[in-house]
Amino acid sequence: MTLRPLGAAAPERAKARLDQWLWFARFAKSRSLAARLCAAGAVTLNGAAVGKANQAVRVGDIVMLPQGGWQRTVRVAALGARRGPAAEARLLYEELAPALRLRDLRPEWLPLLDVDEPLEASELP
Q1: How many domains are there within the chain?
Q2: Shortest CA distance to 64 belongs to which of 86, 84, 82, 41?
Q3: Which three-class secondary structure state does DSSP give residue 45?
Q4: What is the distance between the alpha carbons of residues 99 and 120, in angstroms, rounded to a whole number?
Q5: What distances in angstroms separate CA 87 from CA 44, 55, 74, 94, one per listed residue?
Q6: How many whole angstroms separate alpha carbon 16 and alpha carbon 81?
Q7: Is the pLDDT confidence value at 66 over 80?
Q8: Are 80 and 25 in contact (CB under 8 A)?
Q9: What is the CATH number of the domain that holds 31?
């Protein structure tokens, strides 16, 4: 264990857990919810789906995640040391694109049959 002089700043970490960073940046209300988002595969890191909450995140990484009914794309600007107020959390990332509604990302439902198209005898149950 190395000791630092009193008042010395802590050195900046090179990486952090993704679930912890999502919680620090206030994308999730709790760390366990952030871990569930990661485990469900809802979060992508640099274009690859994340399967585990302990995935390492570094400054400069691109994170895509759902938040509410929106799809957010952000770049990690800092890792943070605590879950602070919203103004402090906003300094941990920068928005790369405007948030998109999730319903706009899904293709619209199209019927398999045209209403005016009669059913063939072979297609009847």
Answers
A1: 1
A2: 41
A3: strand
A4: 45
A5: 24, 25, 16, 13
A6: 10
A7: yes
A8: yes
A9: 3.10.290.10
